[in-house]
Amino acid sequence: xxxxxxxxxxxxxxxxxxxxxxxxxxxxxxxxxxxxxxxxxxxxxxxxxxxxxxxxxxxxxxxxxxxxxxxxxxxxxxxxxxxxxxxxxxxxxxxxxxxxxxxxxxxxxxxxxxxxxxxxxxxxxxxxxxxxxxxxxxxxxxxxxxxxxxxxxxxxxxxxxxxxxxxxxxxxxxxxxxxxxxxxxxxxxxxxxxxxxxxxxxxxxxxxxxxxxxxxxxxxxxxxxxxxxxxxxxxxxxxxxxxxxxxxxxxxxxxxxxxxxxxxxxxxxxxxxxxxxxxxxxxxxxxxxxxxxxxxxxxxxxxxxxxxxxxxxxxxxxxxxxxxxxxxxxxxxxxxxxxxxxxxxxxxxxxxxxxxxxxxxxxxxxxxxxxxxxxxxxxxxxxxxxxxxxxxxxxxxxxxxxxxxxxxxxxxxxxxxxxxxxxxxxxxxxxxx
Length: 433
Ligand code: UD1
Prior knowledge:
This protein is of the alpha+beta class. The protein contains 13 helices and 23 strands. The chain has helices spanning 22-31, 48-59, 86-89, 97-106, 125-133, 166-177, 192-203, 235-248, 259-271, 309-316, 336-342, 372-384, 404-410, and strands at 3-7, 12-17, 35-42, 63-68, 71-75, 108-112, 136-141, 144-149, 158-160, 182-186, 207-209, 215-219, 224-230, 250-255, 275-278, 282-287, 296-297, 322-326, 346-350, 353-357, 366-368, 388-392, 414-418. Strands 21-22-1-23 form a 4-stranded mixed β-sheet. The chain has a 4-stranded mixed β-sheet with strand order 2-14-16-15. Helix 5 packs parallel to helix 6, helix 8 (235-248) runs parallel beside helix 12 and helix 10 runs parallel beside helix 12. The two termini are 23 Å apart. Uridine-diphosphate-N-acetylglucosamine binds at residues 23, 26, 93-94, 122-127, 163, 165-168, 189, 306-307, 329-330.
């Protein structure tokens, strides 16, 4: 298995360019299945999740051409359902967006239950409720999802989501794009990548209003046409570098960011004693003094993002005093705490609450990435720790961070990736399309 080896204790300095948003890309690539014509997408992050989704589209007949490393043309003029995608759809969460886009494009869908990080139970009942309300007959059994629109096309309606769900909001919005009539989706999530997906679809001819508020209204269209679109920068990748600088100390400017999307993260880091300067499309993060404890509760946007909880909790493990972190989104997102304890962190977890007693130092140790953001937290812990930290299961980290090692090294970090000489151990990781 590949691993990262981090020698800690170095402060970070310099400039890092933030990549396109993973969670926007993993919604927009499946949505492109509905576009008849060439869509050019810029700022696609080079991560394994986007590679796998592109591979799925290719297996369904899409023609994909990279213009450069982060810009590609997707032509879904001649696409079809295919059983060949199932091995890939099982591996990542966002494959469930194909339910919405297949129903929009073909009037039927055929995929598997999605994979993705394990934060406890991850139901998709709200996705299914939305599809059913739009007139899909759903058949979910033995890990497969089959759906068919009554009469061959989904029909607009009013849908109230019982839970504020990013995934259900995206999936229902995608499905409604090509339904007949008007769909109103209430109690929706407001994350920046939901707005980005709506902007993408609108630029291809959709009629979606209200993304970024609690209610989204979709006037269904018969067809989507080609066009070009540039993805927003990744809020969580940016937040991860901000947390890393907070942990190690130093001064780093993050470029290609939307500072407004980072407000929820910046606010907490400032409480912890970090200095943050905002420009139009950059932020500079500086930490010279001691870190102060704070309390955090994760919430849907614009609240503090659950996807930043492991990284910032890791920094709080080194802050003066006691911090209380409450996970408000997922049932089981503290598995990484056992790994941090191996490095000397003092954290007690009781259900959704973690009580963090700051320590003076973390010490390098062999640890594992339990999931994508937990893996990023281990890297931050390793950068802050005295001695050497070895991080296994980095396949999780590479699902979501473009060139993590290269970007950190440019900032002065001592981190290397050690590749397993046995290529068989990388089976299941799709090659670039
Ligand atoms: C997305 C993100 C993930 C992030 C999460 C919350 C992607 C690919 N992943 O995940 O990184 O942590 O948003 O910001 O974008 N729920 C239900 N029923 C449903 C759907 C969700 O009860 O049908 C619950 C979940 O169990 C969870 C909460 O709603 O407690 C939020 O989940 P949701 O926003 O849907 O997360 P994902 O879209 O899976």
